[in-house]
Protein backbone atom coordinates (compact mmCIF):
# COMPACT_ATOMS: atom_id res chain seq x y z
CA UNK A 1 0.00 0.00 0.00
CA UNK A 2 1.35 3.43 -0.92
CA UNK A 3 1.56 5.90 1.90
CA UNK A 4 1.78 9.55 0.98
CA UNK A 5 3.35 10.42 4.31
CA UNK A 6 5.55 8.63 6.78
CA UNK A 7 5.17 11.48 9.22
CA UNK A 8 3.76 10.14 12.46
CA UNK A 9 0.19 11.14 13.27
CA UNK A 10 1.32 11.95 16.81
CA UNK A 11 3.62 14.59 15.31
CA UNK A 12 1.02 16.00 12.97
CA UNK A 13 1.13 13.48 10.09
CA UNK A 14 -1.78 11.62 8.52
CA UNK A 15 -2.98 8.62 10.54
CA UNK A 16 -2.86 5.18 8.91
CA UNK A 17 -6.46 4.69 9.93
CA UNK A 18 -9.39 6.87 10.94
CA UNK A 19 -12.33 4.46 10.69
CA UNK A 20 -13.21 2.39 13.79
CA UNK A 21 -12.78 -1.40 13.65
CA UNK A 22 -15.73 -3.79 13.62
CA UNK A 23 -16.55 -5.31 17.00
CA UNK A 24 -16.12 -9.10 17.36
CA UNK A 25 -19.61 -10.62 17.14
CA UNK A 26 -20.15 -14.35 16.79
CA UNK A 27 -23.88 -14.41 17.51
CA UNK A 28 -26.01 -15.22 14.49
CA UNK A 29 -29.24 -16.81 13.32
CA UNK A 30 -28.30 -20.16 14.88
CA UNK A 31 -28.10 -18.71 18.40
CA UNK A 32 -31.27 -16.68 17.87
CA UNK A 33 -33.18 -19.78 16.78
CA UNK A 34 -31.87 -21.87 19.68
CA UNK A 35 -32.70 -19.15 22.20
CA UNK A 36 -36.13 -18.68 20.69
CA UNK A 37 -36.92 -22.40 21.05
CA UNK A 38 -36.10 -22.24 24.75
CA UNK A 39 -38.15 -19.08 25.20
CA UNK A 40 -41.09 -20.66 23.39
CA UNK A 41 -40.93 -23.67 25.72
CA UNK A 42 -41.29 -21.36 28.72
CA UNK A 43 -38.80 -23.51 30.67
CA UNK A 44 -35.72 -21.35 31.06
CA UNK A 45 -34.02 -23.64 33.58
CA UNK A 46 -34.43 -27.33 34.33
CA UNK A 47 -32.45 -27.34 37.58
CA UNK A 48 -33.84 -28.40 40.94
CA UNK A 49 -31.78 -28.16 44.13
CA UNK A 50 -32.95 -31.56 45.33
CA UNK A 51 -31.69 -35.11 44.74
CA UNK A 52 -34.01 -35.64 41.78
CA UNK A 53 -33.93 -35.82 38.01
CA UNK A 54 -33.65 -32.03 37.97
CA UNK A 55 -30.45 -32.09 40.01
CA UNK A 56 -28.39 -32.27 36.81
CA UNK A 57 -30.32 -29.58 34.94
CA UNK A 58 -32.54 -29.49 31.90
CA UNK A 59 -32.15 -30.97 28.41
CA UNK A 60 -30.18 -28.04 26.94
CA UNK A 61 -27.69 -28.12 29.78
CA UNK A 62 -27.20 -31.86 29.43
CA UNK A 63 -26.91 -31.65 25.65
CA UNK A 64 -24.26 -28.94 25.93
CA UNK A 65 -22.31 -30.96 28.50
CA UNK A 66 -22.41 -34.10 26.38
CA UNK A 67 -21.28 -32.21 23.29
CA UNK A 68 -18.50 -30.50 25.24
CA UNK A 69 -17.25 -33.79 26.68
CA UNK A 70 -17.28 -35.28 23.15
CA UNK A 71 -15.51 -32.32 21.60
CA UNK A 72 -12.69 -32.40 24.13
CA UNK A 73 -12.56 -36.16 24.71
CA UNK A 74 -13.19 -36.00 28.47
CA UNK A 75 -15.38 -38.11 30.72
CA UNK A 76 -17.17 -35.23 32.44
CA UNK A 77 -18.09 -31.74 31.31
CA UNK A 78 -20.02 -29.82 33.96
CA UNK A 79 -21.53 -26.51 32.95
CA UNK A 80 -21.45 -23.60 35.37
CA UNK A 81 -22.54 -19.98 35.18
CA UNK A 82 -18.96 -18.64 34.82
CA UNK A 83 -15.37 -19.78 34.74
CA UNK A 84 -15.03 -17.99 38.08
CA UNK A 85 -17.67 -20.34 39.56
CA UNK A 86 -15.90 -23.23 37.87
CA UNK A 87 -12.57 -22.30 39.42
CA UNK A 88 -14.10 -21.91 42.88
CA UNK A 89 -15.90 -25.26 42.55
CA UNK A 90 -12.67 -26.90 41.35
CA UNK A 91 -10.66 -25.64 44.32
CA UNK A 92 -13.43 -26.84 46.63
CA UNK A 93 -13.71 -30.23 44.92
CA UNK A 94 -9.96 -30.70 45.28
CA UNK A 95 -10.41 -30.46 49.06
CA UNK A 96 -8.24 -27.36 49.50
CA UNK A 97 -8.52 -25.73 52.94
CA UNK A 98 -6.88 -23.64 55.68
CA UNK A 99 -3.15 -24.26 56.06
CA UNK A 100 -2.75 -25.38 52.45
CA UNK A 101 -0.73 -23.56 49.84
CA UNK A 102 -1.72 -23.45 46.19
CA UNK A 103 0.77 -22.36 43.54
CA UNK A 104 -0.73 -19.97 41.03
CA UNK A 105 0.25 -17.47 38.38
CA UNK A 106 0.36 -13.80 39.35
CA UNK A 107 -0.18 -12.76 35.73
CA UNK A 108 -3.78 -13.70 35.11
CA UNK A 109 -7.35 -12.62 35.65
CA UNK A 110 -7.88 -12.20 39.41
CA UNK A 111 -10.39 -15.07 39.69
CA UNK A 112 -7.68 -17.64 38.91
CA UNK A 113 -6.38 -17.19 42.48
CA UNK A 114 -9.46 -16.16 44.47
CA UNK A 115 -10.88 -19.66 44.93
CA UNK A 116 -7.81 -20.44 46.99
CA UNK A 117 -8.54 -17.53 49.36
CA UNK A 118 -12.24 -18.34 49.46
CA UNK A 119 -11.47 -21.80 50.87
CA UNK A 120 -9.06 -20.41 53.45
CA UNK A 121 -5.87 -21.53 51.71
CA UNK A 122 -2.86 -19.44 50.70
CA UNK A 123 -1.97 -18.51 47.12
CA UNK A 124 1.77 -18.76 46.47
CA UNK A 125 2.77 -16.98 43.30
CA UNK A 126 5.23 -18.57 40.89
CA UNK A 127 6.78 -16.38 38.21
CA UNK A 128 5.89 -16.74 34.55
CA UNK A 129 7.97 -17.96 31.64
CA UNK A 130 8.91 -14.88 29.58
CA UNK A 131 8.02 -16.69 26.34
CA UNK A 132 4.61 -18.21 27.14
CA UNK A 133 3.59 -15.90 30.06
CA UNK A 134 2.46 -19.04 31.91
CA UNK A 135 3.92 -20.49 35.12
CA UNK A 136 6.51 -23.13 34.30
CA UNK A 137 7.88 -26.31 35.89
CA UNK A 138 11.02 -24.35 36.86
CA UNK A 139 9.20 -21.52 38.61
CA UNK A 140 6.72 -23.92 40.25
CA UNK A 141 9.65 -25.90 41.63
CA UNK A 142 10.89 -22.76 43.42
CA UNK A 143 7.47 -22.13 44.95
CA UNK A 144 6.96 -25.64 46.37
CA UNK A 145 6.82 -26.22 50.12
CA UNK A 146 5.69 -29.06 52.37
CA UNK A 147 2.31 -27.25 52.52
CA UNK A 148 1.71 -27.20 48.75
CA UNK A 149 -1.50 -29.03 47.90
CA UNK A 150 -2.33 -27.90 44.37
CA UNK A 151 -1.20 -25.97 41.31
CA UNK A 152 -3.44 -23.69 39.26
CA UNK A 153 -1.84 -23.22 35.84
CA UNK A 154 -3.35 -20.71 33.42
CA UNK A 155 -3.09 -21.10 29.64
CA UNK A 156 -2.54 -17.41 29.16
CA UNK A 157 -3.50 -15.55 26.00
CA UNK A 158 -4.46 -18.83 24.28
CA UNK A 159 -1.16 -20.71 24.71
CA UNK A 160 -0.95 -23.79 26.96
CA UNK A 161 1.34 -23.87 29.96
CA UNK A 162 4.13 -26.47 29.79
CA UNK A 163 2.07 -29.26 31.31
CA UNK A 164 4.35 -32.30 31.02
CA UNK A 165 6.73 -30.85 33.57
CA UNK A 166 3.87 -29.53 35.70
CA UNK A 167 2.18 -32.95 35.85
CA UNK A 168 5.49 -34.60 36.65
CA UNK A 169 5.96 -32.34 39.69
CA UNK A 170 2.33 -32.84 40.74
CA UNK A 171 2.55 -36.64 40.50
CA UNK A 172 5.78 -36.80 42.46
CA UNK A 173 4.35 -34.60 45.24
CA UNK A 174 0.73 -35.77 45.19
CA UNK A 175 -0.66 -32.38 44.13
CA UNK A 176 -3.93 -31.62 42.39
CA UNK A 177 -3.58 -29.69 39.12
CA UNK A 178 -6.29 -27.25 38.09
CA UNK A 179 -6.01 -25.79 34.60
CA UNK A 180 -7.54 -22.39 33.90
CA UNK A 181 -8.16 -22.63 30.16
CA UNK A 182 -10.60 -19.71 30.03
CA UNK A 183 -8.53 -18.08 27.29
CA UNK A 184 -7.48 -21.20 25.42
CA UNK A 185 -10.34 -23.38 24.16
CA UNK A 186 -9.09 -25.59 21.30
CA UNK A 187 -5.40 -24.84 21.91
CA UNK A 188 -3.28 -27.99 21.80
CA UNK A 189 -0.44 -29.28 23.91
CA UNK A 190 1.29 -32.31 22.36
CA UNK A 191 -1.89 -33.58 20.69
CA UNK A 192 -4.00 -33.02 23.79
CA UNK A 193 -6.54 -30.25 24.35
CA UNK A 194 -5.82 -27.36 26.63
CA UNK A 195 -8.24 -27.56 29.54
CA UNK A 196 -7.87 -31.34 29.69
CA UNK A 197 -4.25 -31.47 30.83
CA UNK A 198 -4.72 -31.37 34.61
CA UNK A 199 -7.08 -33.06 37.08
CA UNK A 200 -9.70 -30.37 36.57
CA UNK A 201 -9.96 -27.86 33.72
CA UNK A 202 -12.04 -24.72 33.47
CA UNK A 203 -13.32 -22.88 30.39
CA UNK A 204 -15.11 -19.53 30.18
CA UNK A 205 -18.13 -18.65 28.09
CA UNK A 206 -18.21 -14.97 29.00
CA UNK A 207 -18.83 -12.31 26.39
CA UNK A 208 -15.14 -11.53 25.87
CA UNK A 209 -13.99 -15.06 25.21
CA UNK A 210 -13.49 -16.93 21.91
CA UNK A 211 -16.99 -18.44 22.16
CA UNK A 212 -19.60 -17.24 24.61
CA UNK A 213 -23.20 -17.20 25.80
CA UNK A 214 -22.98 -13.89 27.67
CA UNK A 215 -21.91 -15.50 30.93
CA UNK A 216 -21.07 -19.16 31.42
CA UNK A 217 -18.35 -21.70 32.00
CA UNK A 218 -17.44 -25.37 31.90
CA UNK A 219 -15.49 -27.63 34.23
CA UNK A 220 -13.98 -30.79 32.76
CA UNK A 221 -12.42 -33.80 34.45
CA UNK A 222 -11.81 -37.49 33.92
CA UNK A 223 -12.14 -38.17 37.65
CA UNK A 224 -15.58 -39.43 38.71
CA UNK A 225 -15.19 -38.35 42.31
CA UNK A 226 -14.11 -34.81 41.44
CA UNK A 227 -16.96 -34.58 38.92
CA UNK A 228 -19.50 -35.58 41.54
CA UNK A 229 -18.14 -32.98 43.97
CA UNK A 230 -18.26 -30.22 41.33
CA UNK A 231 -21.88 -31.15 40.49
CA UNK A 232 -22.80 -31.02 44.17
CA UNK A 233 -21.11 -27.65 44.75
CA UNK A 234 -22.80 -26.26 41.62
CA UNK A 235 -26.21 -27.05 43.01
CA UNK A 236 -26.70 -26.60 46.79
CA UNK A 237 -24.59 -29.57 47.91
CA UNK A 238 -25.62 -29.24 51.58
CA UNK A 239 -29.27 -29.83 50.69
CA UNK A 240 -28.68 -33.06 48.77
CA UNK A 241 -25.70 -34.87 50.33
CA UNK A 242 -27.93 -36.85 52.67
CA UNK A 243 -30.19 -38.16 49.92
CA UNK A 244 -27.22 -38.65 47.61
CA UNK A 245 -25.45 -40.73 50.25
CA UNK A 246 -22.31 -38.57 50.12
CA UNK A 247 -20.18 -38.88 53.26
CA UNK A 248 -17.02 -36.84 52.54
CA UNK A 249 -18.47 -33.42 53.29
CA UNK A 250 -15.29 -31.34 53.16
CA UNK A 251 -16.04 -28.10 51.28
CA UNK A 252 -19.51 -29.38 50.37
CA UNK A 253 -21.36 -26.21 51.08
CA UNK A 254 -23.05 -25.56 47.80
CA UNK A 255 -23.85 -22.59 45.63
CA UNK A 256 -26.09 -21.80 42.75
CA UNK A 257 -23.54 -22.00 39.94
CA UNK A 258 -26.13 -23.38 37.51
CA UNK A 259 -26.34 -22.45 33.84
CA UNK A 260 -29.78 -21.62 32.43
CA UNK A 261 -31.34 -23.49 29.51
CA UNK A 262 -31.21 -20.27 27.53
CA UNK A 263 -27.48 -19.89 28.03
CA UNK A 264 -26.86 -23.57 27.37
CA UNK A 265 -28.76 -23.43 24.08
CA UNK A 266 -26.67 -20.48 22.91
CA UNK A 267 -23.43 -22.07 24.11
CA UNK A 268 -24.30 -25.26 22.19
CA UNK A 269 -24.42 -23.26 18.93
CA UNK A 270 -21.23 -21.44 19.81
CA UNK A 271 -19.42 -24.73 20.36
CA UNK A 272 -20.25 -25.71 16.76
CA UNK A 273 -18.46 -22.55 15.64
CA UNK A 274 -15.41 -22.98 17.83
CA UNK A 275 -13.04 -24.51 15.29
CA UNK A 276 -13.91 -22.02 12.59
CA UNK A 277 -13.56 -19.07 14.96
CA UNK A 278 -10.22 -20.32 16.23
CA UNK A 279 -8.96 -20.84 12.68
CA UNK A 280 -9.90 -17.24 11.90
CA UNK A 281 -8.10 -15.94 14.97
CA UNK A 282 -4.98 -17.93 14.15
CA UNK A 283 -4.94 -16.68 10.56
CA UNK A 284 -5.30 -13.04 11.59
CA UNK A 285 -2.85 -13.21 14.46
CA UNK A 286 -0.22 -14.98 12.39
CA UNK A 287 -0.46 -12.34 9.71
CA UNK A 288 0.38 -9.66 12.30
CA UNK A 289 2.93 -11.87 14.00
CA UNK A 290 4.92 -12.35 10.81
CA UNK A 291 4.88 -8.65 9.97
CA UNK A 292 5.94 -7.57 13.46
CA UNK A 293 8.53 -10.31 13.96
CA UNK A 294 10.63 -8.44 11.40
CA UNK A 295 10.77 -5.29 13.56
CA UNK A 296 13.85 -4.97 15.80
CA UNK A 297 12.81 -4.61 19.43
CA UNK A 298 9.42 -6.31 19.02
CA UNK A 299 8.87 -10.00 19.81
CA UNK A 300 5.33 -11.14 19.00
CA UNK A 301 3.90 -14.36 20.48
CA UNK A 302 6.18 -17.39 20.77
CA UNK A 303 4.66 -20.80 20.12
CA UNK A 304 6.23 -23.70 21.97
CA UNK A 305 7.07 -26.62 19.66
CA UNK A 306 4.28 -29.21 19.89
CA UNK A 307 1.73 -26.58 20.92
CA UNK A 308 -0.84 -24.50 19.11
CA UNK A 309 -1.73 -20.95 20.07
CA UNK A 310 -5.36 -19.89 19.74
CA UNK A 311 -4.74 -16.17 20.27
CA UNK A 312 -7.22 -14.90 22.78
CA UNK A 313 -4.96 -11.89 22.37
CA UNK A 314 -1.75 -11.36 20.39
CA UNK A 315 0.88 -10.34 22.93
CA UNK A 316 4.03 -8.54 21.81
CA UNK A 317 7.14 -7.99 23.89
CA UNK A 318 8.55 -4.52 23.58
CA UNK A 319 12.23 -3.80 24.12
CA UNK A 320 12.71 -0.13 24.98
CA UNK A 321 16.49 -0.50 24.89
CA UNK A 322 16.23 -1.26 21.15
CA UNK A 323 13.42 1.13 20.24
CA UNK A 324 14.74 3.98 22.35
CA UNK A 325 11.43 5.18 23.81
CA UNK A 326 9.28 3.79 26.60
CA UNK A 327 6.39 1.48 25.70
CA UNK A 328 3.92 4.19 26.69
CA UNK A 329 5.28 6.58 24.07
CA UNK A 330 5.29 3.90 21.37
CA UNK A 331 1.71 2.85 22.18
CA UNK A 332 0.54 6.48 22.13
CA UNK A 333 2.03 6.92 18.68
CA UNK A 334 0.38 3.73 17.37
CA UNK A 335 -2.94 4.80 18.87
CA UNK A 336 -2.57 8.15 17.09
CA UNK A 337 -2.32 6.14 13.85
CA UNK A 338 -5.81 4.79 14.65
CA UNK A 339 -4.79 1.46 16.16
CA UNK A 340 -5.21 1.22 19.94
CA UNK A 341 -2.86 -1.20 21.76
CA UNK A 342 -3.37 -2.42 25.31
CA UNK A 343 -0.35 -2.11 27.57
CA UNK A 344 0.72 -4.48 30.30
CA UNK A 345 -2.30 -6.80 30.78
CA UNK A 346 -2.95 -7.13 34.57
CA UNK A 347 -0.88 -5.90 37.48
CA UNK A 348 0.66 -8.99 39.14
CA UNK A 349 -2.03 -10.15 41.54
CA UNK A 350 0.06 -9.95 44.71
CA UNK A 351 0.59 -6.21 44.14
CA UNK A 352 -3.15 -5.60 44.20
CA UNK A 353 -4.73 -4.20 47.40
CA UNK A 354 -6.36 -7.42 48.61
CA UNK A 355 -2.92 -9.09 48.84
CA UNK A 356 -0.96 -6.02 49.90
CA UNK A 357 -3.34 -5.43 52.79
CA UNK A 358 -3.77 -9.16 53.41
CA UNK A 359 -7.50 -8.57 53.60
CA UNK A 360 -8.29 -12.28 53.91
CA UNK A 361 -10.58 -13.97 56.38
CA UNK A 362 -8.10 -16.84 56.56
CA UNK A 363 -5.29 -17.79 54.12
CA UNK A 364 -1.94 -16.63 55.47
CA UNK A 365 -3.74 -15.00 58.43
CA UNK A 366 -5.03 -18.34 59.74
CA UNK A 367 -3.50 -20.06 62.72
CA UNK A 368 -3.50 -23.30 60.70
CA UNK A 369 -1.06 -21.65 58.29
CA UNK A 370 2.55 -22.44 59.17
CA UNK A 371 4.29 -20.91 56.16
CA UNK A 372 5.64 -17.45 55.41
CA UNK A 373 4.29 -16.41 52.06
CA UNK A 374 5.55 -13.17 50.55
CA UNK A 375 3.53 -10.73 48.47
CA UNK A 376 6.34 -8.20 48.22
CA UNK A 377 7.31 -6.38 45.06
CA UNK A 378 10.08 -8.33 43.36
CA UNK A 379 8.89 -11.90 44.05
CA UNK A 380 7.96 -12.46 40.38
CA UNK A 381 10.25 -10.13 38.43
CA UNK A 382 9.26 -11.40 34.98
CA UNK A 383 5.54 -10.79 35.55
CA UNK A 384 6.31 -7.36 37.01
CA UNK A 385 8.47 -6.37 34.05
CA UNK A 386 5.89 -7.58 31.51
CA UNK A 387 3.23 -5.55 33.23
CA UNK A 388 5.24 -2.39 33.82
CA UNK A 389 7.38 -2.13 30.72
CA UNK A 390 7.44 -4.86 28.15
CA UNK A 391 4.13 -6.31 27.08
CA UNK A 392 1.43 -4.91 24.88
CA UNK A 393 -1.34 -6.72 23.06
CA UNK A 394 -4.07 -6.35 20.51
CA UNK A 395 -7.20 -8.27 19.58
CA UNK A 396 -7.47 -6.50 16.22
CA UNK A 397 -7.12 -9.71 14.21
CA UNK A 398 -10.38 -11.37 15.20
CA UNK A 399 -12.79 -12.93 12.70
CA UNK A 400 -14.99 -10.18 11.27
CA UNK A 401 -12.06 -7.93 10.41
CA UNK A 402 -11.08 -7.61 6.76
CA UNK A 403 -7.72 -8.04 5.09
CA UNK A 404 -7.56 -4.22 4.81
CA UNK A 405 -8.19 -3.88 8.55
CA UNK A 406 -5.32 -6.27 9.26
CA UNK A 407 -3.10 -4.32 6.86
CA UNK A 408 -3.82 -1.11 8.74
CA UNK A 409 -3.07 -2.72 12.10
CA UNK A 410 0.23 -4.16 10.83
CA UNK A 411 1.18 -0.92 9.08
CA UNK A 412 0.47 1.36 12.04
CA UNK A 413 2.99 -0.50 14.19
CA UNK A 414 5.53 -0.71 11.36
CA UNK A 415 5.21 2.99 10.65
CA UNK A 416 5.80 3.97 14.26
CA UNK A 417 8.72 1.56 14.59
CA UNK A 418 10.40 2.93 11.45
CA UNK A 419 9.98 6.53 12.63
CA UNK A 420 10.59 5.84 16.29
CA UNK A 421 13.70 8.04 16.40
CA UNK A 422 11.41 11.04 15.94
CA UNK A 423 9.63 10.12 19.17
CA UNK A 424 12.73 10.47 21.27
CA UNK A 425 12.26 13.64 23.26
CA UNK A 426 14.19 16.50 21.77
CA UNK A 427 13.82 15.25 18.19
CA UNK A 428 10.16 15.99 18.45
CA UNK A 429 9.06 18.92 16.31
CA UNK A 430 5.35 19.57 16.49
CA UNK A 431 3.71 20.96 13.42
CA UNK A 432 2.95 24.67 13.99
C1 LIG B 1 -12.10 -14.66 31.70
C2 LIG B 1 -11.23 -15.40 32.61
C3 LIG B 1 -11.70 -15.99 33.79
C4 LIG B 1 -13.08 -15.76 34.31
O1 LIG B 1 -14.07 -16.09 33.41
P1 LIG B 1 -15.62 -15.79 33.77
O2 LIG B 1 -16.36 -16.75 32.92
O3 LIG B 1 -15.85 -14.36 33.40
O4 LIG B 1 -15.81 -16.02 35.21
C5 LIG B 1 -10.83 -16.75 34.53
N1 LIG B 1 -9.56 -16.92 34.16
C6 LIG B 1 -9.05 -16.34 33.06
C7 LIG B 1 -7.63 -16.59 32.70
C8 LIG B 1 -9.87 -15.56 32.24
O5 LIG B 1 -9.36 -14.99 31.16
Rg from C-alpha positions? 23 Å
Range of helix content = 25-40%
Could you give a short account of the major beta sheet? 7 strands, mixed
**Helix-strand string:** HHEHEHEHEHEEEEEHHHEEHHEHHEH
General shape = globular
pLDDT under 50 segments (min length 5)? none
Sheet with most strands: strand arrangement: 1-9-8-5-4-2-3
Share in β-strands: 5-15%
Bound molecules: pyridoxal-5'-phosphate
Structural class: alpha/beta
Count of DSSP E strands? 13
Mean pLDDT figure: 96
Distance between the termini: 29 Å
Number of helices: 14
Characterization of this structure:
The protein is an alpha/beta fold. The chain contains 14 helices and 13 strands. The strands form three sheets. Strands 1-9-8-5-4-2-3 form a seven-stranded mixed sheet, sandwiched between helices. A four-stranded antiparallel sheet has the order 10-11-13-12. A two-stranded antiparallel sheet has the order 6-7. It is globular. It starts with 28 loop residues before the first helix and ends in a 14-residue tail after the last helix. The mean pLDDT is 96. Pyridoxal-5'-phosphate binds at residues 82-84, 108-109, 111-112, 154, 180, 182-183, 204, 206, 217.
Q: Could you write a compact summary of the structure shown?
A:
With 432 residues, the chain is of the alpha/beta class. It has 14 helices and 13 strands.
Record keyword descriptors for this entry.
432 residues, binds pyridoxal-5'-phosphate, single chain, 37% helix, 14 helices, alpha/beta, seven-stranded mixed β-sheet, four-stranded antiparallel β-sheet
Please specify the SSE layout and strand pairing.
Elements: H1 29-41, H2 59-72, E1 76-80, H3 83-93, E2 101-104, H4 111-118, E3 122-125, H5 137-143, E4 148-154, H6 163-173, E5 176-180, E6 188-189, E7 192-193, E8 200-204, E9 217-221, H7 224-234, H8 237-244, H9 261-293, E10 298-300, E11 314-318, H10 320-323, H11 327-336, E12 342-343, H12 353-356, H13 381-390, E13 391-394, H14 403-418
Parallel strand pairs: 2-3, 2-4, 4-5, 5-8
Antiparallel strand pairs: 1-9, 6-7, 8-9, 10-11, 11-13, 12-13
Helix pairs in contact: 1-9, 2-9, 3-4, 3-7, 5-6, 7-8, 9-14, 11-14
The protein binds pyridoxal-5'-phosphate.
